[in-house]
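Weekly sync notes, structure subgroup
Attendees: PM, AL, DS (notes)

Item 1: joint prediction request from the bench team. They want all two components modeled as one assembly rather than separately. Inputs as received:
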Amino acid sequence: MYKKSVRLVLTFFVLMSFWLVLSQNLQPASLLIGALFSLLAALLSFDFFIKPDEGMHSKAIRTIWLLLIYVFILIYEMFLASIDVVYRVITMDINPEVVMIKTDIKSDLGIVLLANSITLTPGTITIDIEGDHLYVHWLYARTTHFGHAAELIKGRFEYWLGRIFI
Amino acid sequence: MIAYLFIFLGLVFIFFGTLGIIRFPDIYTRLQTSSKCDAAGAIALLVGLIVREGLDSLSLKILIILVFLLLTNPVASHAIARSAAIRGIKPWRKKKKC
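Output from the run, pasted for the record:
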């Protein structure tokens, strides 16, 4: 549980840096307008942007580093899978199935990131989620076995997300 | 030179993604190629542009576009797939040889 002022200031800094990147203007008038509207938007939205029980842990720096590593792993896997899908487009050798897999991640944000990673990897789309069960449409299903399919689809993602969110 | 290699790679991915829309049989498989190959292609394109531009303010803006692409693309394709599943469209399946 963090104080409101900490969350407000963090939201303000995120919005202000966004404004600086987009406007690319260091004139005083521009800075003043940016600060004013960042403060206004931060006042309205800090409650949604950083939830009282999530956000800044004492391990925030470590979380951010792990997330950066995770994004690079994700992009690498995306390219490998894209080459596979290009091969399937050329040969039309497809075998689509809907399989159900189970995840061990408990936190909501972790499950959302896992589902988005599965969807972002070419060849698999998350169709629906019930509790901790994910329904995944698979372009080339090597197996329909519950555990084996989960192993092939989640692969590395769940290991890294488990290190970040538990 | 590396930049043009990345841009070319992106164009190849987008081309085959679009070809997949024409060749594949049903909505789910078409969604696979159309949105996913395009996402990989767009990432390669934008990385190529960043390399070509060098590290300055424009490439920072491209980086922001990339982050939003990574966030919104899976949400959109998941929404399409889920609405198709709720409407009861059965996935196309390969005919098994008995």
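Discussion: The mean pLDDT of chain A is 79.
Action: AL to compare against the crosslinking data before next sync.
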